[in-house]
Every structure is written in C-alpha cells, then in structure tokens.
Amino acid sequence: MLVIDPEAYFELNKGKLIILDEIQRVPELFPLLRGVIDRRRRQGFRTGQFLILGSASLDLLKQPSETLAGRIAYKELSGPTVPELPIQTAAEQDKLWLRGGFPDSFLARNDAASLRWRSNFISTYLECDVPQFGPAYPP
Fold first, then answer.
1. Among 109, 35, 117, which residue's Cα sits nearest to residue 68?
2. Cβ distance 102 to 108 under 8 Å?
3. Reported pTM
4. What are phi and psi of 57, to 5 degrees?
5. SS3 sequence of the chain
6. What does the pLDDT profile of the chain (139 residues) look like in tens digits?
7. Phi, psi of 101 (to 5 degrees)
8. Measured between alpha carbons, how far is 89 from 28 in angstroms, rounded to an integer?
9. How far is 18 from 13, CA to CA, in rounded Å?
C-alpha cells in the first residue's frame, strides 16, 4: 500500500511509528513527508512520527527540492561494538577479525556463508549505492 498510495498509508497509520528504510531510493516521498509532517503538527502531533533510515546518508542530505529542515534530526549509527557481540574466546575474536562487524556476516553459520554475504554486500554497494554519490557515467 505504501508504494501504491503512500499518503493513504501514512493516514491509515497515523499515531504509529512509520519506519521508512532506504528512503533515498524513493526521493518522491520527501515532498509528501514534508506536507504530512506539517499537517500533523497543526493537529497536535509533534515528534516520533517517522523513523527514516538510509545507508547512503549523503543522498538524504542531497535532497535539494524538498528539505525537511526543522522536521528531522540526523543520527548516524555505527555497526555493533565489540562489547555488543557474543565474543568470549580468542577464536571468536579471530572470527570477528576475519568476518567483520556486520551482524549477518559475523553471525553466519560458517565461513562460506559469511563470505557469500560479504560478496553480495560489496556487489550491491558498488553497483547501487556508490554510483549515487557522484556523476552518473554509462557503464
């Protein structure tokens, strides 16, 4: 429903936290969000209406036509820290060093599954996210 009629989805879920992940991939939501947030403010809703997530945070900042200034707070999140991970032995420390700190890679059932996850992540990042950071060039 969000894809078909985002405004109706937002209205249907008014009063609930709506999580929008990878929003930089749907820039047409920015003008809609601005209007929805402004209308809700007039109705008495203040903060905590939307949790907007994006792995390519530079894209969020490059939305020139529809700023959410005064309507948004930025919080950069890091990956899990060592104390948050189930590391108790030297072998688990080695596993963290070899697999990295991404939860899906670190917690994979074996090294092959971890490598597969990291390979897919790198491919997706290079093909989808990195090109958004600069000028587009034909392949």
1. 35
2. no
3. 0.59
4. -60, -25
5. CCCCCHHHHHHHCCCCCEEECCHHHCCCHHHHHHHHHHHHHHCCCCCCCEEECCCCHHHHHCCCCCCCCCCCCCCCCCCCCHHHCCCCCHHHHHHHHHHCCCHHHHCCCCHHHHHHHHHHHHHHHHHHHHHHHCCCCCC
6. 567 889 999 999 988 999 998 887 787 888 888 889 898 888 888 777 888 887 655 555 555 445 777 787 777 777 777 787 778 888 888 888 889 888 899 889 999 999 999 999 999 888 876 776 666 666 6
7. -95, 0
8. 48
9. 7
Residue for token pair 């600069």: 134
Cα–Cα distances in Å, from 119 out to 55, 74, 124? 17, 29, 9
Q: Which two tokens stand for residue 88?
A: 């108790």
**Residue in the structure block whose two tokens are 């920015």:** 30
